[in-house]
Amino acid sequence: MPWYKSTRASYYKHLFRNMIVTIIGVSFVPVFLVSFTIYYAFFTAYQEKINDHLMALVENHKKQIDSFLSNRLADILFLSESDSYGQFRDQAVLDANLHSLRNSYGGIFVDLGVVDADGHQVSYAGPFKLSNVNYADALWFKKVMRDQVVVSDVFLGLRGFPHFIVAVRRFEGDLPWVLRATIDFIAFNNMVENIRIGETGFAFILNKEGELQTKPRYNFNPAQGCYGQFLDCSKPITSDIHIDERRDELDNDIIYVTALLKNRDWALVYTQKRSDAMAEMRWAQRISIFIFVFGGISIVAMAFILSWRMVNRIAESDQAKEMMNKQVIESGKLASLGELAAGVAHEINNPVAIMVEEAGWIDDILTEPEYKNNHNIEELQRALKQINTQGKRCKDITTKLLSFARGSGSAIRNMQINEIIEEVITLSSQRAKYANIEMHSTLQPDLPEIRASETEMHQVFLNLVNNAIQAMEKNGGSDRTIHFKSYVRDGKIIVEVTDNGPGIPEAVLGRIFDPFFTTKPVGQGTGLGLSICYGIIRKMNGDIQVKSTVGEGTQFTIIFPIQ
Amino acid sequence: MAIANILLVDDEVPFVEAMTRRLTKRDVEIHAAYSGEEALEKLAHSDAIEVVILDIKMPGMDGIDTLREIKRRFPLVEVIMLTGHATVESGIEGMKLGAFDYLMKPCDITDLVEKVQAAARKKRDHEEKIIQARIKEITSRRT
Strand A543-549 and strand A480-489: pairing? Predict the structure, then answer.
């Protein structure tokens, strides 16, 4: 019977649940803690690594851009020192210089111009018609007159293209003059635009007013003001590189790395979505989640299977224990019954003896001559005889009860069970002959010896034979046999006593070993014969079994252990 | 002369009384004792007792102990064991210790009388032999 159908199903269910919960708990909690700790440490380390990497990248580019700007400035400064104001006013000289600059640096320099103290461009070399343009109001011009050198912000200017200007101021006598060059925006832009990482990483440059100085990879509109929204100019800036993380309106975490350029006029800003920067982390995350989920399912399945099996085992052993308990109780019952029987036998025998003797005394008295002629004398003598007979019957019962209860009454020795069987056959053959029953045997020679009491073995087989004879003589018929068979199987000696008598009805079969159970008429059987057999065989650690079919016969099988 | 002079030992008073009546009627000279100790005392005081009918199960000194003592002190007295608790073993043990025979309670009075007679005869024969031996010894002294 499976445990979930047993009477203790709720107990087993409880046990089952507890086991599952314990197994899952014990397996999961450490996994959780370890995974979480490792994940957290790894996440932090990885984040730092990404930040460091981005900062290094931005710093590198900042240095590159800074050196680009200062180199261009140095070029122009060098150029301005190579000739005099008078020389530069000559268009041909200027053209030649622009030509050589463009040769050396590719298309970075777009044009060259010489501007006098009033802001008039006195000579110009380049693709635009910008001779005699007045720069007096231009920001860069005011700045260069004050600061001697300038790198301007990007602006559209007169030509209508974004560009910026590198200019130096020099003196011709007392009069200042300015040599200016335009830097190609596209060449400069490339330096910044090449900073690309992942899908969302890009860089751009802002001036203090928050205006874009490069063309960003994506449409991007920085807030106006001090470096847009990225740096607060009011706060003193402690480092040139600054990293920050903000959340945009779409709820994405975005990393901003900002580096100040060009004497803090500009800011190089690199921005990337955090999720993009941590893409590899996310991949690792996904794999671990997959492993975790898969492992979790396995643990749960294992917990289920293990607990199921365990509870099955427990239920099985519980059942076995219960059966054993029943057997122990059963044999205990028989034992205490035996003790009781012994006590009863002892106590009953004496009073019965007295009664029989007193009846005998009455009988003695009746033989006196004075009673000789009493007409009731015969009746009285019959009654006394009956008392005597019943007294004998009591004695029979107590004798059998005692032998049932007595335990090892007679000496136990090594013996051949075949010898006992042959003796029993000899002892019963006379009686069997009168009942017209044939007895024969098939005994396996050289059986191992068993340790038993001879009288008990006689008792067992005589009881079986007597029962068989009684059953068969009652029913008559011909070809009646009792067959003995002995053999060894599975390390045990088996003795079968088979008759072809009337058989035992099934309703009775289960009770034949019960003490005082009998089917014989009152006074003929005590109901103890088979109980005694059972007691003797069980005491030897053997077993006695019965198989019977009504109308065909009965077979008793006795199994003796071999010592 | 009575067919035998016997001592009946049993702790069951009514049993002893019934047996006394019945055996007396059958011409048996009978003495009663209700314990092993009493039996030994009676034997010590009376030389006439030939046979002891001894119950095995008695409180205090039981039948087997009493038998052993009787056989030690009065080796010529014959003992018939009477087993109230129907065990053949104790009867057999008694016979090993020198009892003449054993009977189970309740017993047939005729059987009992027969056994008593046989026991008495054996004892008398025994005594006769001893007397003969003595006579022989005395008569042969002269030679």
Answer: unpaired
